[in-house]
Amino acid sequence: MLRDITLGQYYQSDSVIHRLDPRVKLSGTIIFIISLFVVNNFIGYAIAGLFLAWVIKVSKVPFRFMVKGMKSIVMLLVITVVFNLFLTPGEAVVTVWKLKITKEGIEIAVKMAIRLVFLIIGSSVMTLTTTPNNLTDGLESLMKPFKIFHVPVHEVAMMMAIALRFIPILLEETDKIMKAQIARGADFESGNLVKKAKSLVPLLVPLFISAFRRANDLAMAMEARCYRGGEHRTKMKPLQYKKRDGLAYLTVFLYLAVCILGGRILPGLFMAP
């Protein structure tokens, strides 16, 4: 299960999406997420799904890799759907004891599930096609306007990139510790909720120790190299927009326009007498 989490991992490939400026991918991801909440009908979601499928195909990241990353949010997805099914008032379709599934609940549950799936996959495309260093540079560049409010932009971007990069490392470490504990007779599956919580103690303690040790090693390495962030720091590869980045921006905004207009105009055409 831990190996199924793809967040923070980079998939090496030679594609147009990989070669795009990280600022384009960050902005495109934000616009895609906005489109999922602006549109509130299935025609809009169909347009978003087709756009996302096209981006995945162009990125040359295997679709099974995306589906693999979805396994980690199955429980969250199920909880979201169940809560919307049973707690949304409206016209009852199925009644189970004192609980009832409403027509409005089914519609909202399906829409929320689609949004969550598209949101996770869309964000995964960005992280899978962008190296942590490029992601840091892109975040810092996009957050420059916040310097007016004395926000430490470089430090914030660096912390976010390091946290994202450490996710797969800590997951791999957790997997190793679990296998070592199971080999020593630990049982993480059987028993009630309290017993399962207690069985996690031998897992969490060494994991926290490992995380603090890695953080300390990273801090010492940065100090040994006289790392100083913030103002007057130069970059070996400064970000520069190219023609393909402009075309990518145009494509993303065109998608947003089609998604909004298609999601609002087409339903009216179908419902017209």
Report on this structure.
It is a single chain. The protein is mainly α and 273 residues long. Helices cover 69% and strands 3% of the residues. It contains eleven helices and two strands. The chain has a two-stranded antiparallel ribbon. A hairpin with a 2-residue loop joins β1 and β2. α4 crosses α6 and α7 packs antiparallel against α8. The longest helix has 31 residues. It is flat and about 65 Å long.
The assigned structural class equals mainly alpha
Report strand order across the widest sheet: 1-2
How many strands appear in the DSSP assignment? 2
* Mean pLDDT reading: 81
| Tertiary shape | flat
| First-residue to last-residue Cα separation | 51 Å
> What fraction strand?
under 5%
How many helices? The count is 11
- What is the chain-wise order of helices and strands? HHHHHEEHHHHHH
Q: Low-confidence segments, ≥5 residues, pLDDT <50?
A: 269-273
Work out the helicity level: 55-70%
Largest sheet report: 2 strands, antiparallel
Cα-based radius of gyration, to the nearest Å: 23 Å
